[in-house]
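ESCALATION

Customer reports they have been waiting on this structure for their group meeting. Please prioritize. Original submission:
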Amino acid sequence: MKKAVRYFVSALVIVVLTLGSMAMAPAQQAGSQKYFVVQFAGPIEESWKAEVTAEGAEILDYIPDFAFKVRMNPGIANRVAGKSFVSSVTPYSSALKFGSDLKRDGEQNLYLIRIERGSDFGQTRAAVAQTGAEILSFEEDLMVVAANASFLDAIANVDDVASINNYVMHELHSVSGAPAYNESAGDIVNADVANSRGYDGSTVIVGVSDTGIGDGTTTGAHADIPSSRVVAVYNWPGATDTCFQSITDDGAIDVDSGHGTHTSGSILSGGEPGGQGRGVAPAARLVFQATENWANISNFCQMFGGWPANGYFLTGLPDDLKTMYQQAYNAGARIHSNSWGAAVAGDYTVDSVNTDSFVWTNRDMVITFSAGNEGIDANANGVVDNDSIGAPGTSKNVITVGASENVRPDNWPCDTSLTYTSHDAYQTGQTCSSMGGTQQNFLGTYGSRWGADFPTNPIASDPTAGNSGQMAAFSSRGPTDDGRIKPDVVAPGTWILSAFSSLYQEGYGDPVNPQVGAYQWDGWGTPFNSEYKYMGGTSMSNPIAAGGAAVVKDYYSKAFSINASAALVKATLINTAVDMADENNDGVNDNDFPIPNVHEGWGLINLDAATDGSVAFVDEAATGLSTGGSTNFTVTPTGGPLKITLVWTDYPSTDTATTNLVNNLNLTATSGANTYRGNVFSGGWSTTGGSADNVNNVENIYIQSPSGTYTVTVSAFNVPNGPQKFALVVDGGTISTPPPPTSTGYLAPTAQAAVTSSAGDNNGFQTSPGNAFVDDNAFAVDVDSGSNKNTSCTNTGKDKHLFFNYGFNIPSGSVLGIQVRLNARADSTTGSPKMCVEISWNGGASWTAAKSTNLTTSEVAYTLGGTSDLWGRTWALGDFSNTNFRVRVTNVASNNSRDFYLDYIAVNVTYQP
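Update from on-call: job pushed to the front of the queue and completed.
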């Protein structure tokens, strides 16, 4: 079913080529000679990237696992391929540019083309046009084209084309035929309790992108959203293109559905004197961005695109959403609410990328999105199907909100002064008076309203409201296509009572809208009065959660004087959410689907628990984690269940990646012999065993009956784009912040030995090797190094030398990083001489991957590794004994007459006590 009232696209949209284009696609290229895939040997270290960049390469997007797309010429590619930490370098294949589920049905289709950053957009656009595709619009690094699927290979062969995806329409996430009541919905999420503590959003500005608001001015937003709380109202009309033949720019008014006024009211309306329609954050301020306008559609698009001749559309949504977020951010907004999206069935799209990118660079901006209204029971088994999350709700860094049911103790009252019959399909022939002034018996069931989508009990016979422990059947379900848990949380989204836009209201003396000759939509059922009406959908649950985010942000500001990061707000809402008792709507509170699940994610938001002062937290630290790094915390339970939540704002992925997690952190909690890993759950609680989560940037450990203290560790398995900061929230326990890291200081060895087998000349530093123990300009010397010209750090033809007995004294704690200092030079730079360093933790039986540094003819102090660089492994304190710890230096050049000089070698270990 098409549950959304109407569909919308951005201004640069929707057209279809005339059928039968005769352009021919050239043959598929073998691979680019400008872009390459560099596959690294394991979890990526910053020093590896630095070496690749130093060769003149430009590192672009991360490719799971442990690879990057890199721009360079073949000569640089050959040098990069020779590095010890690089497994392979291969030309970037055009087949990697295709998004998932790309349409190849023989018909003309619309595609969204992304151009690689740093490319010449004009030249690339011309090259795409030469393939025979018709370019309909372009903005920033994106273009919309219409093409037959046979053109796709030719488009992909254009070197600077980064990706090709289906173009999808944006839709509002309100559902025709269903509503909810804000002060009741607010009670369900305990907003009233949080507000009574003083956490009402007064320190927060919320941005809303939607259809319009009231009369489009700061003074006429709504009677209960006074101008003193409206910071700005911006109009985004969009522009005409091949499809939008003309646009009637009516400013920021909200005249057709009243959607934008309704969602804004759910967040921050002051409400009626009796509390009706009160928003979740009733003292927050508003920045509104209006994107809807009346548009006439070209005959061409009507014929080939199936569009109506005219209508109201979200013409103003930009192709690059970052521009819209930035305007709101510049106006002071730190929450951004979006009750719209595209039905992409869990795909990570360009909109998802741009949204993640904005939060990555603006880490205090909380962005919320509705999950979508695509939930259906297609196989008629009585359970709503998986995999229907919309985009940008598939983003990693947003809070994606599903819809639960609303409950109203006043039974959904309506305005008995209205004499016309209801336009709601389930209230045919009824007036408010004939229904007895309330709509309790006229809410409809999911089956009666949307029978084709919910043909089977228990959903078919379940009323659309009345049980706060149930899901709204239409709410889109997770997971995302790469398996991430979505939605993140849910909030009430059926029969929500919120602000009624003041123009063209039926029954209140207004004229009809002259543009369409009709009144504004009544929403679900019959309005409460001229100020408030009912609506339903994840459009309605999202602003309740956005208001909740504003309350949480306000709480951290007032209680702790901090500007909470997006990660901390998200972690708090998830950590304190409630596992719903009847998420499958069978009428039994048996929790058939414990959290986390595809229906509710981590549960129903609970602002009481989020603001009662019981949560302990760590917000993003000044420095984050690099590959191999870790941070420990001591968590002491305070009674009851122990809930630990880790959230990090992840680096944006790409729209063609099959796995979208880039920086991979892991959460563990250990007490005695029991170790719990993030997101290893059974029956709604953490269980020991299992494997680390390599998919989500949200990890939870919920221990039902904690015992003893816990060492909670956040470790960085792979951070290709770091360092990675994080937020940690604990409920039911206290966090002991670890003491500051310390280090051993640089320690020199007191013993050494040449490697005398399969090591070049088999004599290492043959002259005065002990000179490397002291920094005094006296050198250990390796003359005429090596027995061949190979440049690999691990080649058996290279001279090698061991240094050991460093005398480390690390009394306790965890190792954070290892630095190896070399004071060295070569007799000449001919042959590109370098020293490679490996470390052993077991007396030389095993070695880390090598790190290397290029030498000059002057002595230079080089540092390999870093204070948060673990050289690709997790270290135990016993690894640093004189028996176990070894450093191996290998001298490498493509000219085996090179002489190597080592003045000093020392090691510094940074650790957390």
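Sent to customer with the following note: Residues 1-28, 177-183 have pLDDT under 50 and may be disordered.
Escalation resolved.
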